[in-house]
């Protein structure tokens, strides 16, 4: 049965069995469409009956990249759970993989970040013998070297680069623009990608100024960047849950750990409120507490 047929059946189920409001119905269908599209673009074509908890966790990582709040993420998960309950009722799947899927906790949660050593280990896994490898290294160096959101990365234009000045122009949320210094490693890798790889790719109409292109000459999708990172994490043997957004957290955390002014970090990240940036102060305090517990003589076990 095709995805469109399953979706239509789910819609009828929600209308007749659940009696949902029009807004809730549309929200659930939107969430299912997002999930099915993610499966298709991730190469998961073996059927809904083969979906496991790991696939669902990858999807949650993907919607986290969209910077949805905890409440919005919880709603998406609710929609996917309802979808799989329907699939079980209709005997389209044998088991419900969403039973162990947890909604995000509300309130402040300290983000996961990578150490410098982990980032270097991850970058070392990139196969530079392929053209995609040079591009992927430029992607990782830019995510970490500039603290970009995934949406900002995939929408970057060649004309946004100011390599002589060592800065890039970034269009963030609400189409607000900011200038971000380009780290030396990111600048070097972007230059390599432009001169050695991108010049040999024929951009499709409308993508002529897009910086990072796929093999078809069009803009990368969020899913593609997510999958690139996932593959590198697996190769590196890193056990943390890492997504493209983790590099943004790592960028900010390392800046604060090394004494960067919080207002400066706010500007670099494009946060509308410094309250959002202050979470990295909490990360720094957590690291300081670990140091005290480890090295202070009154915390030594006898």
Structural summary, described in words:
With 302 residues, this protein is mainly alpha-helical. It has 2 domains: 3-100, Tyrosine recombinase, N-terminal domain (DNA polymerase, domain 1, Orthogonal Bundle); 116-291, hpI Integrase, Chain A, CATH 1.10.443.10. It is built from 13 helices and 3 strands; from the N terminus they run αααααααβββαααααα. It has helices at residues 3-18, 22-41, 53-65, 70-89, 116-123, 131-146, 150-154, 184-197, 222-236, 244-257, 262-269, 274-277, 279-295, and strands at residues 161-162, 167-171, 177-181. A 3-stranded antiparallel sheet has the order 1-2-3, with no helix packed on it. β1 (161-162) and β2 (167-171) form a beta hairpin. α1 (3-18) packs antiparallel against α2 (22-41) and α2 crosses α4 (70-89). The model has no long low-confidence stretch (mean pLDDT 84).
Number of contiguous helices:
13
Helicity level, as a percent range?
Answer: 55-70%
Radius of gyration over all CA atoms, rounded: 22 Å
Number of strands: 3
**Total domains, how many?**
2
Distance between the termini: 66 Å
- Major sheet, described briefly? 3 strands, antiparallel
CATH architectural name of the largest domain: Orthogonal Bundle
Query: Which blocks of ≥5 consecutive residues have pLDDT under 50?
Result: none
Shape: globular
Structural class: mainly alpha
CATH topology assignment of the largest domain:
hpI Integrase, Chain A
């Amino acid at each position: 049965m095709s995805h469109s047929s399953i979706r239509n059946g789910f819609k009828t189920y929600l209308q007749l069995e659940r009696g949902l409001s029009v807004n809730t119905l549309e929200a659930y269908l939107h969430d299912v469409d997002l999930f099915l599209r993610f499966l298709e673009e991730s190469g998961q074509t073996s059927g809904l009956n083969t979906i496991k908890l790991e696939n669902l966790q990858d999807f949650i990582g993907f919607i986290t990249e969209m910077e949805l709040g905890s409440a919005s993420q919880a709603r998406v998960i609710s929609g996917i759970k309802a979808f799989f309950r329907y699939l079980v009722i209709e005997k389209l799947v044998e088991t419900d993989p969403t039973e162990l899927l947890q909604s995000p906790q509300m309130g402040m949660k300290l983000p996961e970040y990578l150490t410098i050593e982990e980032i270097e280990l991850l970058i070392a896994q990139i196969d530079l013998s392929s053209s995609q490898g040079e591009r992927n290294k430029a992607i990782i160096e830019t995510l970490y070297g500039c603290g970009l959101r995934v949406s900002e990365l995939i929408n970057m234009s060649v004309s946004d680069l100011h390599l002589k000045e060592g800065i890039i122009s970034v269009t963030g949320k609400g189409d607000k623009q900011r200038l971000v210094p380009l780290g030396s490693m990111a600048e070097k890798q972007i230059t390599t990608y432009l001169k050695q790889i991108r010049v040999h790719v024929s951009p499709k109409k409308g993508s002529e100024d897009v910086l990072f292109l796929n093999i078809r000459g069009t803009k990368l999708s969020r899913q593609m960047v997510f999958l690139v990172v996932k593959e590198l994490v697996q190769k590196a043997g890193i056990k943390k849950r890492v997504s493209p957004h983790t590099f943004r957290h790592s960028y900010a955390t390392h800046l604060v750990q090394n004494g960067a002014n919080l207002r400066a970090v706010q500007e670099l990240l494009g946060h509308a409120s410094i309250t959002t940036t202050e979470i990295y102060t909490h990360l720094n305090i957590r690291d300081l507490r670990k140091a005290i517990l480890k090295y202070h003589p009154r915390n030594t076990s006898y």
